[in-house]
Amino acid sequence: xxxxxxxxxxxxxxxxxxxxxxxxxxxxxxxxxxxxxxxxxxxxxxxxxxxxxxxxxxxxxxxxxxxxxxxxxxxxxxxxxxxxxxxxxxxxxxxxxxxxxxxxxxxxxxxxxxxxxxxxxxxxxxxxxxxxxxxxxxxxxxxxxxxxxxxxxxxxxxxxxxxxxxxxxxxxxxxxxxxxxxx
Length: 183
Known about the structure:
The protein is mostly beta strands and 183 residues long. The chain has one domain. Helices cover 10% and strands 40% of the residues. An eight-stranded antiparallel beta barrel has the order 1-2-3-8-5-6-7-4. It is globular, with a radius of gyration of 20 Å.
């Protein structure tokens, strides 16, 4: 009986440690920002609170390169997200997450618990274990103790729809799979 108690306690502690583990980077999502969607909306006249199209590429060592069509929504103090800008995100998931084609296809929203003045990660709505963290460049020689400036523009919503998966998948030969009628 004591033997089973020890095993049960160990399994509970192991489960707690696994759930509390920080997410690992599983790849990088690179997106090119396109044209404004619904440019006639009054709130978008100032450039704040706008939505733009995106074309994205997800590179991971766990599967084929994936291509997504997306929509990015921003809010900010009158600043617009420029067209033809490239956005980079570190895609994170808990250690041991099983990779499947189209893993990123969902809507991501800004983490509301992020302190003011910081760039919030984007959390998956359908699969909340997936998150997107902005990759930012720091000027050469900048110290990590320096407080970064408050963001002028915040991405509050990203929607991704898988269009194609191309490349190696689990060590198999190269393949391409178009997953949409346009694609």
